[in-house]
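Encode chain A's predicted structure.
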Amino acid sequence: MIPDERVERTAELWAHLFEGLQGYLVTFTGQQSTRPGARPSELDDTQQRSWRWPEEKDDAATYLLGQSGVGRDAYFGVHLFRKPGTRRGEHATEVQALWVDGDGARVPKDWPQPTAVVESSPGRHHFYWRLTRPIAPEEAAQLNRRLCYGMGGDKGKWGLGTVLRAPGTRNYKRERTTLVAGGVGA
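Encoded structure for chain A:
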């Protein structure tokens, strides 16, 4: 059984990112590959699911936390989609929050500070900036790219197909397994 406070913490971040929007929340899970010759952090047995937002948010959070509990890395799409079963950018809804996978980078002091920060593993953070109004997905991707490159974040995580680690889940790709402690907070 997943403790209610862990489900609430994950749903709280999603509400911060998606409140007022309709669409499908995408989850993505996988197990770290043990195949000879596998790239570092390569996932096997990947599974992607779509959940109606906001109706199925608690089910999605429970699912990701459960998957993490059985040794799978657990991620969510950083914006909603108009169509289930896809993470393709052309199916993205309007975007309510920008994101950067900091990958060890920090937000410069003279920049607008994020409205939410999640520690994805020790010393590594995901940063989110809630917007005053939703914007077109293509505009969000370009702004994310500028944020990411400007602060030296993970340059592969600014696009519309991005998934980031869910709060309260374990990071299995580093040398030691760590619990993601973060939730909404800046």
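The chain has one domain: 4-179.
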